[in-house]
Amino acid sequence: MFSRLIHRGVTSLIVLTGVLLIGFLMLQVIPADPAVAIAGPQGTQEEIDAIRRHLGLDQPVLLQFVWYIERVLSGDMGRSVINNASVSGELLRAAGPTIELLAVAMLWAVPTALGLGILAALRRGGIVDRLVMAVSVMGVSIPVFWVGLLMIQFAARTRAFPVQGRGGPLWTIDGLSHIILPAIALGLILVGPIARMTRTTLSESLYADHVRTARAKGASEARVIIHHALRTALLPIITLIGLQIGTLLGGAVVTETIFSWPGVGRLAVGSIIAGDYPMAQGAIVFLASAFILVNITVDIFNELADPRIGAKT
Amino acid sequence: MKQMTISKQAGVAAPLFSVENLSVSFSTDSGPLLALDDVSLSIHPGETLAVVGESGSGKSVLSLAIMGLLPPTAKVSVGHMRYDGRDLAGLDKTARRDMRGKEMAMIFQEPSTALNPVKRIGDQLVEAILLHEPMPKATAKTRAVEALAATGIPSPEIRARAYPHELSGGMRQRALIAMALIHRPRLLIADEPTTALDVTVQAQILDLIRDLGRETGTATIFITHDMGVVAEMADRVAVLYAGRMVETARASDLFTSPEHPYTLGLLGSMPQLNQRGAPMLPISGTVPDLRRMPSGCHFHPRCPFAQARCVEERPGLRALDRGRRSACHFAPLLETLGGQA
Predict the structure, then answer these.
(1) Distance from CA of residue A50 to its chain's centroid?
(2) pTM (2 d.p.)
(3) CA distance A217 to chain B (A)
(4) Any idea what the CATH number is for the domain that residue A166 is in?
(5) What whole-number distance in Å separates Cα of residue B112 and Cα of residue B20?
(6) How far apart are alpha carbons A247 and A188 in whole angstroms?
(7) 3-class DSSP state of B41
(8) Is A223 domain-assigned?
(9) How many angstroms separate the CA atoms of B3 and B23, rounded?
(10) Which residue, A135, B126, B147, B264, could crosslink B178 as a Cys pair with Cβ 3.0–4.6 Å?
(11) A221 alpha carbon, distance to own chain's centre
């Protein structure tokens, strides 16, 4: 198991280097020259050259990349072109709200999806099953921004919930009422795929050989479903949830923008629109690293849930 | 079609389990599929009854029907099903479930898939114990290890902590046998328990089932398509063909003078070690599609003795001498077809 983890870690490191490279190259190919930007409209050619030398922009690209990695590793991701704020500082400030939003979205969406999927699998072909599948297809097909806009419409008319920004801490009423709408909008992305996966894997495993053995032992139907059928059906579901977190990160970008949620997604979109490339670069690298980290975590969870995975290598 | 009730073997007490006129059908897209057609059988304490037939003959459906494990899509009609004087057909689900694993247990065909892949062997045994006998978990664990040891698994304490994929096929089957016999059931159904195993392991597993069965006085219904296994294990044999019982007899009688052409074919397709050079005679053709049964006797398209009568008239199961019964118009075969056979 440990050798597998190390292997997984090494490959992730390679992927991460790729992400950094893309982020780095992004700044290389954009038309704006940071030296020109810093020198300002009155800057002379000499001043610009001095700034270039100072920033190391006259050095070979590969060397610049190595410096860039060094800086990122030491937590320095540059400064915003707009307000000179530290990129890593802004990212850290924005990470909290994003994690909060993702967590609340998953907290309601995953149990709901599992419940719907189990219900559909147990009553396969029945009315409940068809209803659940219809709802889940709807959830997959309706884009987040549309749901978000509908919610804002609804909330603006009824004044039931605030539609902009983040309230106080999550455990206060103010914090809760602010997070409800974006969390529902974001969580809806998850419900469809997870419910469908649960239905499929569970309705297969309900008739698996080892589940029949459990019935032959005299286990009650509830015990058979929970301890045997669901236990083995859970493995692909965990993998899917992990993959969906990636989609969720993407959805967070949209949701945060619509609901003005002060997270990494809105930071990324805002800085791209404003032409704040160091900030955009930082946000993208941050989101990509988060995705890689999630994948490793899912792998570990899967390994813990299925003893067979570790044995294969 | 009405059948005579099975006559009790002379001088033997009431059967432990009996079922009469059992039919099981499934509805499929291309019409109803009659998997079992009017099957009756009984088994006495300590007896081993082999149920023989090709794949598709309804053997596995029969075992699941006895255990009450048929999927909800199955339509079951049964004259009566009795276990130790109790009427099983009338029992509610909970009472039936309480019997499973305690009174009647089952060993399955594929040891590689019949165990839960993500639970340790010991935990699966502990679950089986605790389902019917509440006790401290530590005691149950000791019991589980003892049960594994009784099946001849080497270093049972270590195996109890292993996952199924870490054991060999033979060891998995031993673990399943340990699990099935843990409450000393009075009725054991073994559904082709050795089919998926190596030949050398097969013999060990057969010995194990026989020895443990004898020790606990268990009545065993042994489902197989292997006549060699039948010869090894069975006191009595029931032959199934396309969902119907075509012959039943004591094992010794069945091997010396089979009374149905299909049984004759099964025996002919068994390799003979003692008759050097004797040719193997496979049964020609395949089991008919259960949705498109041939008219008359279901076996007539493959039967070497088939005559016009067999195409038109379906033979019922008739009693012959010595408790034998055959569903062939021409039974006893030697008298009727002596010249040909």
Answers:
(1) 41
(2) 0.77
(3) 4
(4) 1.10.3720.10
(5) 34
(6) 12
(7) strand
(8) yes
(9) 13
(10) B147
(11) 37
Distance from CA of A306 to the nearest CA of B (A): 6
Mark B99-126 as b/e (b = at least 16 C-beta within 10 Å). Answer: bbbbbbbbbbbbbbbbbbbbbbbbbbbb
From the list B115, B163, B166, the residue facing A213 with the nearest CB is B115
> Where are chain B's structural domains?
254-341
Structural domain including A147 reads 87-312
Tell me whether residues B98 and A218 touch, CB distance under 8 A.
Answer: yes
**Order of strands across the sheet that contains B318-319:** B104-107, B187-191, B219-224, B48-52, B236-241, B244-250, B325-326, B318-319
Question: According to the model, what pLDDT value does residue A71 have?
Answer: 85
Chain B residue numbers touching A308 (CB-CB < 8 A): 117-118, 163, 165
pLDDT tier for residue A311 given thresholds of 50, 70 and 90: low
Is residue A111 one of the residues assigned to a domain? yes
Please indicate if any CB of chain B lies within 8 Å of the CB of A220.
Answer: yes
Q: In this predicted structure, what is the pLDDT of residue B322?
A: 83
C-beta atoms of A232 and B100 within 8 A: no
Lowest-pLDDT range of A3-17, A96-110, A193-207: A3-17
Query: Can you give the pLDDT at residue B9?
Result: 45
- Separation in Å, CA of A126 to nearest CA in chain B: 14
pLDDT band at B279 (very low <50, low <70, confident <90, very high): low
CB contact under 8 A, A228 and B116: yes
Q: Which of the residue ranges A53-67, B238-252, B321-335 has the most confident prediction, judged by mean pLDDT?
A: B238-252
Answer whether residue A113 shows pLDDT above 90: yes
Nearest to B113 by CA among A153, A210, A226: A210
In tens, the pLDDT along A31-87 reads 767 777 777 778 788 888 888 888 777 788 888 888 888 888 888 888 887 788 888
Looking at the structure, tell me whether residues A146 and A282 fall in a common domain: yes
The total domain count for chain A is 2
Chain A residues whose CB is inside 8 A of the B180 CB are 216
- From A44, A73, A102, the end of a domain falls on A73
8 A C-beta contact, residue B98 and residue A218:
yes
B71 with A215: Cβ contact below 8 A: no
Give A308→chain B minimum CA distance, Å: 7
Please check whether residue A219 lies inside any domain of the structure: yes
